[in-house]
Amino acid sequence: MWTLAALLLLVPSSGHAVALEKPTLSLHPPWTTIFKGERVTLQCDGHHPLVVELRPISTLWYLGHLLLPSHGRSIEVQTPGVYRCQTRGAPVSDPVHLSVSNDWLILQVPYAPVFEGEPLVLRCRGWYDKAVHKLHYYRDGRAVRYFGSGANYSVPQARAGDSGRYQCSGTMRLPVESAPMFSAPVAVTVRELFAAPVLRAERAGPGGAVLRCETRLHPRRRAVPLQFAFYKHSRAVRRFDWAAEYRVPEAEADELEAHWCEAATASRSVRKRSAWPQLPGRGEWPPLAPLCTRPAGPKAAPLAPGNQPLSSRKALPSTSAPSVISAPNATSAGPRAPAGRAPGAAPAACAPQAPLEPAAGALKPEVDLLLREIRLLKGLLSQVVLEMRGPQAAPEPGTARETAAPWAESPETSAAGS
Fold this sequence. Notes:
By secondary structure, the protein is mainly beta. Helices cover about 10% and strands about 30% of the residues. The protein has helices at about 1-10, 365-390, 410-415, and strands at about 25-30, 35, 40-45, 60-65, 65, 75, 80-85, 95-100, 105-110, 115, 120-125, 135-140, 140-150, 155, 165-170, 180, 185-190, 190, 200-205, 210-215, 225-230, 235-240, 245-250, 260-265, 270-275. The longest helix has 27 residues, at about 365-390.
């Protein structure tokens, strides 16, 4: 009764079932293919909750959909098939596939999945451990390794490119040396440890930004620690560290597109770099530069502080004053500040865009200006021609030669314009 009371005190007071992780099923020796007549051991490891029972907690074993009579933590098997186990209160474990062969030569691969950066070991085994000579290993039909005598094919740090269908061949003395024999092909998949990182930018106060290097580990390798490094072009701005964030200095906040990051395991056995950063949209994040910029393409004219539309073209000269550019002997007065803003003043903030439709009567002033410029040019050309004709074109003595202002309309140009 005292033992039962102690167990009752250890049960959660909330009365809710405790969610447990699925148990881990392991195979010993760790090969998925065996010879006919051999036996292997399966072991089920998992969390066992405390329950109000005096008898030991049992383990359930499954071969396919068949429930096996054994209830221990481990069992010995020699039948091919898919095995699973389950402990009380926990879900069913991941499967283990066991194959049984009657060939002279078998290729043994690990029962557990192999991830990037982990060692990959394949074993070419002769019938009941007979020695194998002139051993070849193949991947997808191509020879990848040769040994004079039996040896394992190993890759210290596997990569996704090591996946494929493997096969081995060799000779054995039975009692004389046999012809080359081939094993059955076996599919091997190297799983991705973590996805390629994605670099995202976030606003961090006025003029600053924070870059975050985001990735995800495989569910079976959630405990693997990762480190992160950040780069600008080809220069490392922060070397590998445990933090997945990097604060960009304010002076470099307008060059976020030049940054990228890299994620790696602590041993650097697996390293993956990101693409260029994913910047928020214009509506989600105001531009970092003090000036307002808009994407290229058709756009409406912005509004000045006085809510008057401004043309994207050069400002038109007034029709009541001469043009400084076309007037002779005119001296440049230097660049002019746009209307509505004093020289040296800060640029006005971008105001809401006006509709793309032109204002009423906006086209007529431009046509009038073009006609005036044509008339002016024609008058200047006529004056040049008169000067080039010489004395015969000079006016009679006593008559004053009139020099029309370059912007005044001559009778010839008036007639031509009409």
